[in-house]
Structure formats: C-alpha cells, structure tokens
Amino acid sequence: MSTFKAISNIACTVFLGAAIMAQAHENGDSLQARRDALISRSASDFSAHGLRPEKVGNADVRYAENASVHPAAEAPGSQAHQAEALLIRLREQHELPALAAVVVRSDTTLDLAATGLRRQGKPEKVEPTDRFHLGSMGKAITATVIARLVEEGTLSWTTRPVDVFPELAKTIHPYYRNVTIEQLLRHQGGTPKYDSIAEIKGATAHAGSGSARDQRRAFSVWLLQQRPYVTPGAKLEYSNAGYPVAAAMAEAATGEAWDSLVESRLARPLGIHLTHGLPARDDSPQPWGHTAKPAFFGMASHQNVVEPQPPGDGWALSVIFEPAGDYSLSLADYATFLKLHLAGLADRDGLLKASSIRHLHAGSIPPLHDGPDEYAMGWFLREFDGMEAHWFTGATKAFFSRVIMLPERDIAVAVLTNTGNEAAITATREAAMELLRLHDQPAAR
Questions:
Q1: Computed from CA positions of residues 233, 237, 238, 242, in that sequence, does the dihedral angle turn out positive or negative?
Q2: How far apart are CA 263 and CA 273, in angstroms?
Q3: What domains lie within the chain, and their CATH numbers?
Q4: Is 243:223 a contact under the CB 8 Å cutoff?
Q5: What's the pLDDT tens digit per position in 34-91?
Q6: Taking Cα atoms as reference points, which of 441, 433, 438, 442 lies closest to residue 415?
Q7: Beta-carbon neighbour count of residue 1 at 10 Å?
Q8: How wide is the angle at C-alpha 166 spanned by C-alphas 165 and 172, nearest 5°?
C-alpha cells in the first residue's frame, strides 16, 4: 500500500469518528457509543460503504475569496501557494466560514495558510495569527504539562489521588485507591465518561463555589468517592473526567492554578499564546464559531447553512473540564507544539526530554483495547502500511479540528475551521489528505 493510500485510510477513519462525535453533540447523545462504533470498523468498511456526504446546493451566504499565508511557509520550495489554493477551493466547495491549516516537520513549518471570514456576515478576514478552538485535541496539551511536572519531580507517573488529596485517605472508593495519574490520562482510570455537554455542565452541582481550582478539587474528591464506571486498569474507557482530576492533582501538588501551570510550564517556555475557552470569548476580533441556522419551529435547516454563535452563548465547558479540551491556539503556536512532539519522537530533547515525549505517545503494553486504535496520552495510535499514525480530532457544534502525525515521516498536519457541521468534518479530512500528499517525501534523518 502506498503511503498516500495509508494516509487516506487514516483520514477516512478520523472523518467517520469525527462525524459520529459531531452528531452526538447535535443530538445530545453519548459520544462513547459512537466512538466505540468507529473503533469497531476497519478502514476498508468505510470505503466499501462509500461514506461521503453528498454535494449540497448553495447556501444563503457565499464567502469572499480571501486567504492569508504565514511568512514561515514562504521558504524556498514551499508548497504554500498550493495550500492556499486548496483551502480556498475546499472552503468554497463546503461553504465554510473559514478554513486554516498548518504542515510541519520537527524543525520547520512547511505550510501555514488561512482563508475565509472570522464571522459570517462581517468583512473581517481570518488571519494566520487568529486562534481556533482545539476541542479534545487539547488533551495532548494537558498531558504535556503533566509530563513537565513529572520531569521536575513534583509528580510521578505513579502519583495517586490519595497522595495529594489527604481528605480522601479514608473516604476514597477502594477501587480508586491505587489509580495513578498516568492511568487517568490514558483513560484507564475507570472514571465516568462525562461525554455530553449536559453531563459536563451538571458536574458543577458537585463542585461548590470558589475558584476554578477549588471547583476542580471539590469535583475530583466527590467523584473519587463514587463507584468507578469500570474497574480501573482493566480496560480503556474514554472519559473526559480523568483530565480534570489529573489537573486537580497537579494543582494540589504544586499549589498553582491550572491556567498558571499551563502558562509557566508550556506556553511561556515555548513562546506561544494559549487561551482557555472559545477564541472570541475574551477577544472579539478573533474567529467566532458557527452553528446550524435554525429554520421552522427551532429545527435545524440544511446542515451547511450556518450562522455565527456568540462566543458567550451555547457550547462551553465548565471551568472544571477546561483541561479536557477547552484551549484555543493560533496555527503558528500549535505548529510549535507539534514540532516539540515530532522532535521528541525523533529522539531530540527540547522543552521535554525525548524520553518523556515518547512516553506520552506510547501505547499500553499489553493493549487495553480490542479495536484497531490504541490510546496514548492525548493521541490515538493506529498502524497503517507498516508505519504508526498518531491522530486526534476536536469537535463542538461551532468549531472542528483534526491533527494527523506520522513520526516516521517526521511530518504532521493540522486543519481547523470555525464551524462544527458535517461539511467541516469532510473539508478538514480532504485538506489533511491532500496536504500530506503534497509533502509526502521521507524526511532526511
């Protein structure tokens, strides 16, 4: 099988998984059942059933032809102009407000371009420096911050909640007593799924009042006194709850709030600007998310007809669950994060030691999942054509993002958009496939 065919299979798998997740958000259903449905199918099943959305008619709004290319992508031999043309074509074809992408190797940015509008109905164009919401792709950020604390010696991968929450010494559920922070980050801690927005927002009932740090700790202490959803360590069970518990453990061990830890251990040393929440929540010139435009009696109209969602309205994680996937980054800043991981996977130390990066990306031994995908810490792993792909997606009703990393090729691509409909899922899949094809040359070692 060619490398491009392997990439196509990866992207097709990620597409279906994202479509499943997005539909779950739309219906308010469980994401886990749909994620399980994804993992139980092979890539050949997808192509055999022709899982491609139909081409749709024109929406009620057309978007101006505009695109911006970051100077980092203008090096000799760059495919930047091809990337720009590709993004314009896909954005128009799928009628998206904006579409942006970045392609990197461990030591350089190959492509970085953004096209479209920050907010439908307004003239401001999206810029390469604008921030997009990462969704669950942010779990890799949280795991990376924890890894820095492990290298410092503040935590270890075997640190348990009872080691940092003394109030749990006598009250923690027996099954949680020996759960480690690594198991929580690998979705092996047995915590409940918390995979619907209603359930996530309902967690505040167990968090009391006070600061975000106080709320995370109160929720974690309450949760760890309940019976686990599954036996910890027995299987991989995707759970958004494990990440706020891990963050609360880091807060307890350091005495610092999580947002301070993210800034001091990751953002500032890397020279990146990372924000919590939707991009325009505290900075209105940033891209707005877009959701399906309501039609008759509150029912959604055609899935490609979208309207801006005010950044303080609708989808939002509570502060408790910010570590599970509520970060926004620019393309250039996310590229810096991806380079850190690619360099580590190429055995080069950086902000983190290469050994720590490899640990973050390593699957469980033996694997704890019976499907084709294994979960590391913030990454799904799958083997294609003899090489391993590390991938993830982030989905809300208003934003969608995907990343695919091929460590053996020393390449990663991320594609982001400011709407979360099915057209966004398809467009980002197609963009990722084509950008990887354009740069599908083995990296010199």
A1: negative
A2: 9
A3: 3-134+279-314+325-438 (3.40.710), 141-265 (3.40.710.10)
A4: no
A5: 344 333 333 332 232 222 222 222 222 222 334 555 555 544 345 556 788 999 999 9
A6: 433
A7: 10
A8: 75
Evaluate whether 246 touches 181 at the Cβ level (below 8 Å): yes
- Paired residues of 326 in beta bridges: none
Distance CA 16, CA 10 (A): 10
Provide the token pair at 70: 């970051």
Distance in angstroms (rounded) separating the CA atoms of residues 46 and 438: 24
The torsion angle over the Cα atoms of residues 366, 30, 334 and 16, rounded to 10 degrees, is 80
Condensed to tens digits (0 to 9), the pLDDT of residues 129-181 reads: 999 999 999 999 999 999 999 999 999 999 999 999 999 999 999 999 999 99
Among 198-202, 223-227, 244-248, 352-356, the range scoring the smallest mean pLDDT is 198-202
> Quick check: 189 and 239 in contact, CB under 8 A?
yes
Q: Which residues contact 362 (CB under 8 A, 6 or more apart)?
A: 376
Query: Which residues partner with 197 through β-bridges?
Result: none
Structure tokens at 158: 């075997």
Segment (H or E) for 327: strand 327-330
User: What pLDDT score was predicted for residue 200?
Assistant: 87
Where does 213-318 show beta strands of DSSP type E?
275-276, 289-292, 306-309
Full-model pTM: 0.84
Give the distance, in angstroms, between the CA of residue 314 and the centroid of all CA atoms in the same chain: 19
Place of tokens 């209105």: 284
CB proximity list for 183: less than 8 A, separation 6 or greater: 189, 232, 233, 242
User: What are the residues facing 99 on neighbouring strands?
Assistant: 115, 417
Residue type, 390: H
